[in-house]
Amino acid sequence: MTTEDLTPTSPTSKGQTKMRSGPRELYRHLGICLAHEHLEDALNLLMKIETEYGLPRHLEIFKAKLIELTTGGAFELCDVERILTNVLTVDPNNLDALNELGHFYLNVMDDAVRAKPLLQRALEKCQSLRAEVALGVAQCIWEVGSAEEALAFIEKAKAWCPAIEELDEKKAEIESMGEWNEENDGRDA
Q1: Among 1, 13, 94, 174, which has the highest number of CB atoms less than 10 A from its own CB?
Q2: 95-103: which pairs have CB atoms within 8 A and are 24 or more residues apart?
């Protein structure tokens, strides 16, 4: 399969119109290309999608990764850097872009000096996200389980997110309020 198989609407020799492939069909073909490890075809489809519909940030990052993995073609390694830098210009805390650009500098460009601040920012963002998720899980355990289970989970989570004071705040809240009581928003009567 190639991108030529997915041409936009065009008249046929009999005056009929060929059906245009919409984004859903293009994404389906993208999945097929990836499943069969046809990376250059996948990259061409991403380019077609970008031209016709634009790409969301996560697919821009994916496009950069495909460029990095394919050899030759219309792109060069500087395009990987350009795409990821553009994503970070629009979204400076994009965890995926920070991670990809950091590893690109480290492993492809052999430039640990440029990689380090990006990977450190990614780690900080990751820790913040991990803490946010841990707080949510603790709240769920508290609401559907017990205060004791939620407190045990928080102790485990503190090993993953050591300097996150919100976990200590949630622990104090659960300890002070006891078992979850929906009628009074978690406070025991």
Answers
A1: 174
A2: 95/122, 95/125, 95/126, 95/129, 96/58, 96/61, 97/57, 97/61, 98/122, 98/125, 100/61, 100/64, 100/65
